[in-house]
Amino acid sequence: MAEIVKENISISILRVNEEIANELRQFFNQKKIFVVNLISSPGSGKTMLIERLLDYFDKKKVFVFVGDIETEKDAKRIREKGANSYQIITGNTCHLEAIMIKKGLSLIEDCTEYLFIENVGNLVCPASYDLGEHLRISMISTPEGDDKILKYPKAFLTSDVIVINKIDLLKYLPFDIKKVEEEARKIKNEVKIFKISALLGEGVKDLADFIKEERERKFKN
Amino acid sequence: MHEYSLATNLIEILKEEKRKRNLKKILKVEIEFGKLSAAEPLILKEIFDIIKKQTEFEDTELVIDVIEPEIKCLKCDEIFKATTFPFLCPFCENVGGQILKGDKITVKSLELIKD
Q1: Which among B85, B106, B111 has CB closest to A12?
Q2: DSSP per-residue codes, A124-171
Q3: Chain B contact present for A189, CB below 8 A
Q4: Which terminus of chain B, N or C, has fewer Cβ atoms within 10 Å?
Q5: Measured between beta carbons, which residues in chain A are less than 8 angstroms from residue B106?
Q6: pTM, two decimal places
Q7: How confident is the model at residue B112 (pLDDT cuts 50, 70, 90)?
Q8: From A9, A13, A188, residue closest to B109, measured CB to CB
Q9: Which is nearest to B10 in space by CA: A14, A124, A5?
Q10: Long-range contacts, stretch A181-186, CB < 8 angstroms, 24+ apart
């Protein structure tokens, strides 16, 4: 007679994503492509930040993957700016997964040194999905309010960098930037914080320099 | 709201385990659900119970064991439980800490019938 047995195992529910992410990281390391995963709410300025960052990079050496539920609008914006881009249309998925990045790998050229991944606008789900990146940036913008760090802790906890965008609007908004910085440090003490206005270009060079330094550090050998 | 993606991942894990271990049936799957995993256990269960109907795991019961996160204080090294951010060490009142467990969702056991 068939016997019922209980067997203990230990498998992460995200195992497939984790395996593909590790595969991607190996590929990127081998090609010396430094990968940045940019996470934020819709409308906080991810595409504009990438457009501005491109001013400080050799555009031929940057590839941009953009995730959206629908439309090619963002990839078009990046192309107009002079860099290569690949639009990932996720349909009903609220975040990017490693498999979606893998599908675009063949497009990446030999001269590529940086891959910027603009995640789907969402501060919750993207935080759980490793895309094989070297640097994770979570961004908030001042009109969203100054309470986002503690409301969406996982995104900030898993990030290396926090960007506060639209600081040019600070004078119009009840946004306590000091509180935001303090809360960010409470979540992750060693996190790097950049205060920028992507619209006016303020602070963007510092972030670009930091990304370049991180690439140098990563691939110095 | 990425519970749908998690539920489909779970079905894939069950498929692979069933094939690999040459099982006749998986009666029950138990998962450990960390409170800091940024997903909702009840929603995961509901979605799993809907999508399993179109698979060979129609009769597989999902049991979710929600676990309290354990945090290690970065200052005094004591371990404490916390479910909200920021972590406040009850021993030395330092803010912050390293998550030892409770931020992941892990498949822990299968109740099965072998072929």
Answers
A1: B106
A2: SGGGG---S-SEEEEEEEGGG-TTHHHHSHHHHHT-SEEEEE-GGGGG
A3: yes
A4: C
A5: 10-13
A6: 0.92
A7: very high
A8: A9
A9: A14
A10: A183/A149, A183/A150, A183/B86, A184/A149, A184/A156, A185/B96, A186/B85, A186/B86, A186/B95, A186/B96
Edge to edge, what strands does the sheet with B98-101 contain?
B79-81, B70-72, B98-101
The ipTM is: 0.91
DSSP 8-state assignment for residue A197: B
Q: Which residue has the tokens 């590839």?
A: A63
Phi and psi torsions of A135, nearest 5°? -135, 130
Any chain B CB within 8 A of the CB of A154?
A: yes
Sheet arrangement for strand B23-34:
A4-12, B105-114, B23-34, B61-67
Counting one residue from A and one from B, how many pairs have CB atoms under 8 Å apart?
95
Contact A2 B10 (CB under 8 A): no
Q: Pick from A168, A214, A163: which is nearest to A192 by CA?
A: A163
Q: Please name the member of B1, B38, B105 whose beta carbon is closest to the beta carbon of A127.
A: B38
Instruction: Give residues 106 to 135 of A whose Cβ lies within 8 Å of B.
Output: 124-125, 127-129
Chain segment A169-203, per-residue pLDDT in tens: 999 999 999 999 999 999 998 999 999 999 999 99
Confidence of residue B33 (pLDDT cuts 50, 70, 90): very high
DSSP B20: H
